[in-house]
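In practice, a research group might receive sequence data for several interacting partners and want a quick structural hypothesis before committing to experiments. The following worked case mirrors that situation: the sequences arrive first, and a predicted assembly follows.
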Amino acid sequence: MQTEKFSALFGRSPALAQARRAAFVDGVRAFTPAAIATGAWALVTGVAMVRMGLHLAPALAMSATVFAGSAQLASLPLIAAGAPVWVILLTATIVNLRFVIFSAGLQPYFRHLSLPRRALLGYLTGDVSYLLVIRRFAAVARNAAERTEQVWFHVGLSAANWIVWQSMSVAGILLAHRIPPSWGMDFVGVLALITLVAPSLTDAPMIVGVLVASVVAVAANALPLKLSVLAAVLAGVAAAIALELARERRGAGP
Amino acid sequence: MSALALAAVIAGLTLVTVLTRSLFLLLGDQVTLPERIRHGLRYAPACALAALIAQQLVLSDGRLDLSILNPRLDAGLIALAVMLWSRSMLGAMSAGMLAFTLLRALM
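A structural hypothesis for the assembly, expressed as tokens:
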């Protein structure tokens, strides 16, 4: 019965549909611990869109299609100030350049898929999805069964992430005028991000990378067009890799 | 900003999201990264989130505030400590929000 119902989504071959569904459910489960934090961040983004002067329809449209919290937050003050369109798009592009780095990390996992599917999976992969997927699959699949598992895990995780993000973002848009600014709701978004990063802080290269990225982000804050985030990611990753290399060299030595 | 310009901005931002998030996925096999770099990219999302967090905690209107009287910094560190210790997201966010509210009321 279940197989019948889901055949449109998971395919008609029973064995394949079974494997895909199992990986999809696994992906949804993997997202669950991050749901509260993602929802809080989306709520704050929804509230911010209305507070910064967007009306209902543009706010809903922006939430539904742009689907990138940090780029939305970076573009809102520029929209409010009536900045030229190209300045807004350039700023958002630079804020989003970290996703180009993520897409390089995802590329070997999805190279067997068609172009539209790769574009769709890429579009759906924000910070949290990438963090959770890469935490789960350190190595790229080597056979068809593993590829199915990785792709459908990603689809399940992305679907859960999309639903939570969109529903809480819409809630934020609708409730914006009922939440007094004095509550400091925007800070909930920051706390949510902290709870998402903390479980990654398990090994020395990661901790060093995160510390370096934090310092660079603050030190480079004066850079134009929000280049500071990109600078921080590059510096953090470089520091983590450097520490990995140093440890390997020490380990391989006499 | 006119409705038309706003529509153009939203359409443009959507395109920006699609292109940045799928750039290497679309280039496909034309680019291959060295294994060391590809492996190192797993550090990228945590670094990106840390960058966004750090700016929110210690900068106010572009000015650095590392003092113990900065409620955002204190509350953020408390939330981090609770999260590392208890692994409870709800606990960490509640503790952070409670600390933030109390510190702002006191200072």
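Before designing any experiment, note the following. Residues 2-200 of chain A form one domain. The CA atoms of residues 46 and 215 of chain A lie 28 Å apart.
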